[in-house]
Amino acid sequence: MATPKVHIGVIAGVLILLGIGLTLYKSIVLGFPLLPGKYREVWTIESKISITPTEGPVEVDLRLPEDLAGWVVLEEHFASSGFGFTVVDDKGARVARWTRQALDAPTTLYYKLQTYRLQESELEDAAIPDIEEPMLEADQLAAMERLVGILREQSSGPASFAGLLATQLTDESQNLDASFLLGSYEDAKHLVMLEVLAFAGIPAREVRGIQLQDGRRRQTMSSLIEVYNGSSWVTIDPGTGASGLPTGFFVWERGDESVLSVSGGRNSSLEFALVENSLPARTVVGMEQRSHDYALLDFSIYSLPVEQQGMFKGLLLIPVAALIVVIMRVLVGLKTSGTFMPILIALAFLQTKLLPGLAIFIILVSVGLWIRSWLSHMNLLLVSRISAVVIVVIFLMAVLAIVSYRAGVDQALTVTFFPIIILAWTIERMSILWEEEGVKEVLRQGGGSLLVATLAYLAMSIPLVEHLTFNFPEMTLCLLGVILLLGKYTGYRLFELYRFRDLAFKE
User: Fold this and answer.
1) Left if phi > 0, otherwise alpha if psi is -120 to 50, otherwise beta: which for 241?
2) What does the DSSP 8-state code read for residue 243?
């Protein structure tokens, strides 16, 4: 009869071969690249339209993006279950139109595109729009005249006028007239800028788009302002006053037309989910069509909604961290504070970066241990003590975030990525360990946890590892097989070999 060790060996071998086979299949047959950076960076942008129906027919219009500022749209996909769907032409622009005779419950429509930036470039010159004089109340008119007069004296042209205007609307000690106008338009800086520029006789228009951030969910559109300086168009950021198109800004719409228009519905919203992939453009274009033909073997997660893709991009790195923990504990013999703590710390390091993350963790645990030692003298029950430590940890994180923000240390603002409950439980465990084993054992396990977390972070940060885990999730089977094999290891650990080195036989 086969022993459990043989069973584990067979299962691990099958998992490793299956993972390698599926990886080779996707690379050779489906054309997935094994190395990152070899192809273009392709963005998948998924727009989600949520509507609540009213009585009567429903019609939803979404203006589709064009190839602007060097961006090239590779492929588009629409989800229109139960709706009639068509793409129509509206004054030279493409509009996706969903229609339905009646709708009983809130629903969501999806539009997904894949795009990449062929080259860094500004928006192309276009026709100059007619300037429409804004309709203002008497107090708004007076404030507008005073503000325009001040800006004309301080500026040298339309572009500098718009930049100074954006600064006035952003500055905490802003001009009283600018503050009044901003309040009149419900703090919509881009609307105030358009009105002031129109009043000053300067041609301007709105540019709407998305600031691309990998893994970002529930992203909304941002607005920039284009100003005509007499010979060309200059883009101004209303939030900062900076000129030029921001890096990673995908232009969706240029002009004053509404991006989303809904009739027969209310409370409509438009949100975006974003994922960046290092893949050949041709592979991304054909991926969804070909996935139906290879449904049994193609384990790609690209068919999932983009919001879930961004989540799995981080989750698929956890098996790598788990392998590091197993190697360091089973083969090396390093002690850690639990099995999962180093993995969770490493995930937090991915957001905070290594050195700020180490500093935040040490500060929180040190202060938490001091407060826990004080609570131990109160003779509280375990549940109350743990709950008190959780509240203290949250308070410490809030204080650290506020102090770091005031000090201008932005990295510490990511302190919220640390797992609160795990931190509280670690503080409790280390406190008990301190009382039973002494400070030496606390430092040994705490230092071991930080060392393993650092190694796991360094492994997960390697671009090749990020690329392989996301594009070839079946390689997780290989990691699982290796971990199963390591689970049957009963030999000496490296620390034990070092400890008993004096007992080695000498010839």
Assistant:
1) left
2) B
From residue 41, how far is each of 44, 66, 284, 310, 317 by CA, in Å?
Answer: 10, 19, 11, 15, 20
The pLDDT, as a whole number, for residue 12 is 87
Question: Coil, strand, or helix at residue 472?
Answer: coil
pLDDT at 296 over 50: no
pTM above 0.85, yes or no: no
Question: Distance (Å, rounded) from C-alpha 337 to C-alpha 361?
Answer: 14
How large is the C-alpha radius of gyration of the chain? 29
What mean pLDDT value characterizes the chain? 79
What CA–CA distances, in Å, run from 86 to 67, 174, 229, 268?
20, 48, 39, 20
Q: How far apart are CA 78 and CA 96, in angstroms?
A: 9
pLDDT bracket for residue 455 (50, 70, 90)? very high
- Kindly state the tokens that stand for 11: 């299962």
26 neighbors 472 (Cβ within 8 angstroms): yes
> CB within 8 A of 293, min separation 6: which ones?
none
